[in-house]
Automatic annotation (TrEMBL):
Naturally occurring in which organism (per UniProt): Rosa chinensis
Entry's transmembrane regions: 437-459
Domain Protein kinase positions: 324-675
Protein name: Receptor-like serine/threonine-protein kinase
Assigned keywords, A-Z: ATP-binding, Cell membrane, Disulfide bond, Glycoprotein, Kinase, Lectin, Membrane, Nucleotide-binding, Phosphoprotein, Receptor, Serine/threonine-protein kinase, Signal, Transferase, Transmembrane, Transmembrane helix
Amino acid sequence: MIHFGSECVLVVLCCFIIISFGAHLSTASDKLIPGRSLSGNQTLTSPAGKFELGFFTRGNSNNYYIGIWYANLPDHTVVWVANRNHPVSDPVSSEFRFLENGNFTLLDQSKSSIWSTQNSMSSVSKSATYTARLLDNGNFVIQDASGVIWQSFDHPTDTWLPGGARLGYNKLTNQKLALTPWKNPQDPAPGIFSLEIEPNGTSFWLLYNGSQQYWNSGPWNGKSFAQVPEIERNDHITNVTFVPDDKGSYFSYDSADPDTYIRYMIDFTGQFKVYMWGKGFTQWNSFWLRPTQFCEVYGFCGASSICQQNASLCVCMEGYEPKVPKEWGLGDHTDGCVRKAPLKCIAGVDDTFKVVSDVRLPVNPETLAVDNSDDCRLACLRNCSCTAFAYDNRCLVWGGDLFNVKQFTPDEKEGKDLHLKISASERIEGKKENRTLWIIIGVLGGLFIVITIVVVLFVKHRCFGEKLDTLDGSLVMFRCRALRKATNNFSEKLGEGGFGSVFKGTLQGSIAIAVKRLNCPKQEDKQFLTEIGKLEYVPKVADFGLAKLIDRDISRIITTMKGTRGYIAPEWISGEAITSKADTFSYGMLLFELISGRRNRDVLDDALENYFPTRVANVLNKEEDVDALLDYRLEGNADKDQLSRACKVACWCIQDDEKGRPTMGQVVQLLEGVIDAGIPPMPKFLDRFSKSLVASINYRYITSSSSDSCRHDILSEYS
């Protein structure tokens, strides 16, 4: 038996206390007392284990920050950062220390204080007992006997959490409780955007550089904002509250489900987003964002660059390059672009202009009183500070940086021509580069032409041993008997469209092909052959836009009975201009078929009330259960929310007025849940459809018995 003296017992007890406390920190406590600190991988964890506080880093940098993150999610999403502008390089030798006066301070490896809670001594007592805790709502608080004397919720960074966090305005201190985004996904330093509450109102603003407003939520009506109706319709959010008083005005909200994480945040793109993570989720899901397009965020692409929404990127204007290439690589474009070479502006050495077409013109132009475009160009050329001009029934010139330029697509037909001034040296260098480029293109183009000729001659020689004709020297034309042989006399049908059937075939016994045979052979003209010829010898699945080959008069007859109920948009009937929204209509009809597992045109063999698009529209407008709409073969195995969303999107796609249909880009956002779909109105053509049922049956009889002269017969019957 071994006996210890009292001194040994005391030493052992002290060691045990120290070891226990160290172990307690490493296993993550939810509170600290003055004199204690966090270093290295030591953390505080909220009582239920939802949130964690400690040192973290992002990417491959050696920058470490004190922050709060979701403890039990795999990506450890950070919701609050203390030292955003002052990272430390060594978390092991750095300390997040709780001082005796009730303050926290962050000491770097040299033991210099780089961040502090900065409680004033007038508000705390030297004899008070302080405790610091991390709560299950993500709030880090310092308390004494009187209550909370400091909390992280009063100093938000980029995230607004439910359960007590507030955004608003303190009238007594003129302090804003606003959100500012990270500079980029790897750098939590404050970005240039902010989300703030209007000081004298009830609206949220998104601001660039604290002054330039580029989005407004609209006024608060007690349940939602005018521009964000999704807040009221969101089942995962509750108790959205606005509290105005003499001290200030604040918004707060709660999560309706304690097992579902909700967070509002301002992204580094300058967009205001809401994310949700529920049971079974593997990632955050965004269910709305404003603005919906990042090109609508003022200054997102920075100075002298062009925002390309379709390509989801920013590009520097000609003659410019990224000011900070490293930041551009991380997705932060706000520093913009700078000139590669300065403007000469010397007599006898003229700078020149590069036309940038189909763009939204930069903001803040100066108007000059000149009569025409030539005078406008000359005025800008003579002004050394002028960087660009545009003539749009008046002369607009810009000096210095060019902001908020967006590239439109040809379909949008909103763009203007911007004449960008570039230096003479840039033009000369560009000519040299262009000369070299054209030489390379010429050589490669020549080789391509030779290879193409060889391939065409080979195909002509080998395909069925028959002589083949060509159209304009570029398109191979097969004789009808060759196609009959390849398809075994059109024996295996793959599918049927509004104007013809598709059959399976093979070339040389091994190369699979699809052959489309029109119902009306008189339509096989040069335009049809040209459309096929436009396909860069690259296999594609397409119908080659055959609808364009049908004359407008006959198309109105055909689509009234079959096309509208099949896939073709109503504007074909009315004779209106055809736009890309016609594709949206067709996609909506296809989506109906995916949901139901049956062809839309099967209504001809069934009761009218069972026409699936009509059923979907009725169910949505009556707010009935959508489960009955699902393909019975799936046995109900589908997510109800996703099914409801798909039904709504399909009905939005088939609206009569093309302006009421979403773009295909918006369709993707609707299906992903980024944008809330809402309840679509009943398309009017579905009501008109009932009146044309008898005529549609007659049409079905006519088309089923049509011969090669079908076009003439149909016109005769319906004239």
